[in-house]
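A reminder before we start the practical. When you read a complex entry, don't treat the lines as separate problems. The point of joint prediction is that each chain is placed relative to the others, so the output describes one connected object in space. Small molecules and nucleic acid strands, if listed, are placed in the same frame. In the example below there are two entries. Take a minute to note the order of the lines before looking further.
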Amino acid sequence: MNTATMGRTREEKTMAKYLLLKHYRGGPTPTVDFEPMDQWTPEEVDAHMQFMYAFQARLEETGEFVDTQVLMPDGAFVRYDGEGRPPVTDGPFAETKDLIAGWYIIDVESWDRAVEVAGELSAAPGPGGTPINEWLEVRPFWGGSATVTE
Amino acid sequence: VNEALLRDLVPAVIGILVRRGADFASAEDAVQEALIEAVRVWPDDPPRDPKGWLVTVAWRKFLDATRADTSRRRREERVEDAPRPGPVGSVDDTLQLYFLCAHPSLTPASSVALTLRAVGGLTTRQIARAYLVPEATMAQRISRAKRTVSDVRLNQPGDVATVLRVLYLVFNEGYSGDIDLAAEAIRLTRQLAAMIRHEEVAGLLALMLLHHARRPARTDPDGRLVPLAEQDRGRWDTRLIAEGVDVLQAALARDRLGEFQAQAAIAALHADARTAEETDWVQIVEWYDELVRLTDNPVARLNRAVAVGEADGPRAGLTALAELDPALPRHTAVAAYLYERDGDPETAARLYAEAAQSAASLPEHDHLLRQAARLNARLRR
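Here is the predicted structure of the whole assembly.
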């Protein structure tokens, strides 16, 4: 899917919701090669946390914030295994290369604005204050309403 | 407490407070607080004059808030010196609020939020739920919008077209949460139409009524979209259709055509057909020609291609479609429909599946997916 179709005009709508998915590692060419956070200096950890609070505060201030959650690294895959049998579980896969760490949900006027916000988030400081440049996956939500659709 | 009746009074009461010397943002807050008190007090102690009650209570709330803010002492003195109120609010006050809330300096989302609160009298929580965002987010949007228009005088002439665009956006947001935004948009447009004689206000009201009349038939009991041609026309609201047609005819008689009147005329022609087969597609194409002439809107051209496909056959529709930008929303869905009608289910199935990927809403996505599945199942047989 190219960015042109992502930015399609939703003429009947004012705002659209997007998920900014934080993959701990992963993305087209993973850029995250720094140490886990417990190896950072306390000041570096604080700076990172401060950035995250400020980022959320900015989104709240602009009226674009919807939700954010951080996921614990454990958990498991689960699936149905037939009538009368308990579901099958598999995992946890804490060592997996691509671990979804959490998300933001934003409500913004355009795809371009969603990309701009994701760009800001990706600049969160890492060791030495350098931006971590992590890849964020930006995914539009389907809207639910369909008034003019016939 | 009849909440809709109560909310009808909101813009006039804000207008009165502003004319007594309150700034718009504080007046609006004070009226919201008065509304909350009305909902609490009225059931046991209904006022003889609801509007007078709201003005008195809102004015007291405004004074309380102003006094509480000691840094605004000087403004308080000015307010205390203000002359006592004259006759109660006019139509002009309400009209000015419509213009203010749709001020060109506001983004569409801000205009919508501010209109729903200051003109519609909805609470921030209700608006937030309708747009599926946290209450704090919506509160922020509204207070930013108020700041943006804080220097705008309430007596400046506004542009009706911007107001109509905002009301149309509210209408298209449809129904989610516990607030029916389509019904609310109709209420606000009806109120506007009662205040000013303007063909396009009437046109938009007619369009909304005619669209809303079909809503019961637009989804089946499982929530699936039902296309116009397959709708049970017995479930259309004939009262709303009759009203919409009346409003439209009165507007058209004034002979100042605009895009909303043209759209309403198309909706009226659909409403007029007892069966899908009886639809007067030739006249609908003519109205789309008018609409394209008036707006040069690519979406109008796309819809025109559909109408041409019905009036002159799918080949003609595909020819009309070929002249349009394939990146237009719903272009692929229209192509799929026309290819199926032209007897090419393979191409149609492929295009329906493709169109589903870029649908504008989830119900539309599901509908297009089912169309693709239906054709693919037939092709396998």
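Discuss with your neighbour: The two ends of chain A are 26 Å apart (CA to CA). What might explain this?
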